[in-house]
């Protein structure tokens, strides 16, 4: 089926507002695609995927019998967002990250939001992301989450919702940067005709954000990117971003505490490190402060960080904001800290730790999506409408055994974008992850990573569950 005959059906479609009628801002794109034969489109699709693979744009899946390194499937047809709509999203994302930053400072400080009864203390203190060793921390410039990614979705009406917050180590921005480079050569005529906001500045903004964390008296700070190593699922991104910023990519074994500072081993001896962009989860970064069995971090790093002699992005302890139970309280945080209503709504959420809501969830598992509070990547989740009775019964027992660890949400009818499936275009569900840098100012990558469910009928966009991705164009 050519795009000229594409029917969005009963879904909200990002490119078409009626059968065969593209949205006004994407008409040049659709006209160009319609001018190409299906064979030419397939050739460009294949060439783009091969180019990305040769550049190393892959991800790793642990425990997969077919091998660990995987091609992240890329679809040639971009997802578009009108510039006027993007301005609203940008404003809402800035509001949310400011409120979450206030929450992190408060919950590891005076805990006023708990004392005032806005969030129950037992929910905070029982969160796996709440780290007692982080109490009293004072991150440089008062910023906790410098690099974040918020997952957004649209429903059948076209309304945007925040689906998830990612404030620890959000991944995926390298795919945004590399897919844009590929798309410029794949559809050059369209790029010349459409006013597409650039994303290429991200590495320079990222470096600027990191440099902002160094103590003010240091003229030329040394920044490193700390990776768990080559077997990590996002290792390509770690090496890519380090190369783009011109900083050293290091592992824990490359670092040591000496003379009260963090030092990097080099061929010329030890060199002081002033800022770390960590891609290691909080509990693995210092075996003396957190997990003693960790071989990934640096013993004593927490003491150097607490003393103010090291900048760390993101600050330790930010994982509590990724807890899906804490997520349900973000609109209240925005009102509490900022005195404003949330610009971007949460997906309606049922908290299984509340008895009345637990009863509703257990009685309606076939209609709901149930998520574990601290899982990601599409794991620990039940999509009720696509589950069997046995699967629902098994999940019900898990919820009843640990109600604090689960939330439930209605099954949203996610928006769709046409994707090339064989020799025709079919509508596939998508989400969106913009990337936010919080330094002296707040910078948000125009668009972000659009993940697409490439299995027919699937709502799961995660790469580990068979999803792919598209370039995202913010267009005037």
TrEMBL record:
Gene3D superfamilies: 3.30.1490.270, 3.40.50.11290. Residues 78-453 form the Circularly permuted ATP-grasp type domain. This is Circularly permuted ATP-grasp type 2 domain-containing protein. It comes from Leptolyngbya boryana NIES-2135. The lineage of its organism: Bacteria, Bacillati, Cyanobacteriota, Cyanophyceae, Leptolyngbyales.
């Amino acid at each position: 089926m050519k795009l000229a005959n594409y029917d969005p059906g009963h879904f909200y479609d990002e490119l078409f507002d009626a059968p065969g009628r593209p949205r006004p801002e994407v008409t040049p794109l659709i006209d160009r695609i319609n001018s190409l034969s299906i064979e030419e489109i397939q050739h460009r699709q294949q060439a783009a995927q091969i180019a990305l693979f040769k550049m190393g744009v892959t991800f790793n899946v642990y425990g997969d019998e077919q091998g660990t390194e995987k091609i992240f499937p890329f679809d040639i047809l971009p997802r578009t967002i009108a510039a006027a709509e993007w301005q609203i999203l940008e404003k809402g994302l800035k509001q949310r990250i400011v409120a979450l930053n206030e929450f992190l400072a408060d919950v590891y400080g005076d805990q006023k939001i708990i004392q005032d009864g806005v969030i129950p203390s037992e929910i905070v203190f029982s969160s796996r992301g709440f780290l007692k060793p982080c109490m009293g921390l004072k991150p440089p410039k008062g910023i906790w989450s410098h690099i974040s990614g918020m997952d957004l979705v649209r429903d059948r009406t076209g309304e945007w919702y925040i689906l998830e917050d990612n404030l620890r180590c959000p991944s995926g921005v390298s795919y945004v940067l590399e897919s844009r480079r590929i798309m410029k050569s794949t559809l050059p005529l369209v790029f010349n005709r459409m006013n597409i906001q650039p994303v290429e500045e991200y590495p320079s903004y990222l470096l600027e954000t990191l440099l902002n964390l160094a103590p003010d008296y240091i003229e030329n700070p040394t920044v490193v990117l700390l990776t768990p190593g080559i077997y990590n699922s996002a290792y390509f991104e770690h090496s890519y971003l380090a190369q783009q910023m011109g900083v050293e990519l290091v592992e824990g074994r490359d670092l040591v505490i000496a003379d009260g500072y963090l030092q990097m081993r080099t061929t010329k001896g030890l060199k002081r490190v002033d800022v770390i962009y960590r891609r290691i989860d909080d509990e693995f970064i210092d075996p003396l402060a957190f997990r003693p069995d960790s071989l990934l971090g640096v013993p004593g790093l927490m003491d150097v960080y607490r003393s103010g002699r090291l900048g760390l992005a993101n600050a330790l302890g930010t994982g509590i904001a990724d807890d899906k139970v804490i997520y349900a309280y973000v609109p209240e945080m925005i009102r509490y800290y900022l005195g404003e209503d949330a610009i971007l709504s949460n997906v309606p959420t049922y908290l299984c730790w509340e008895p009345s809501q637990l009863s509703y969830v257990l009685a309606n598992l076939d209609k709901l999506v149930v998520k574990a509070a601290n899982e990601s990547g599409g794991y620990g989740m039940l999509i009720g409408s696509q589950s069997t009775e046995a699967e629902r019964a098994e999940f019900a027992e898990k919820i009843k055994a640990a109600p604090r660890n689960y939330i439930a949400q209605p099954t949203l009818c996610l928006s769709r974008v046409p994707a090339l499936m064989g020799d025709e275009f079919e509508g596939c569900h998508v989400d969106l992850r913009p990337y936010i840098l919080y330094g002296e100012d707040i910078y948000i990558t125009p668009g972000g990573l659009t993940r697409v469910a490439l299995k027919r009928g699937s709502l799961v966009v995660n790469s580990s569950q068979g999803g792919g991705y598209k370039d995202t164009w913010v267009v005037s």
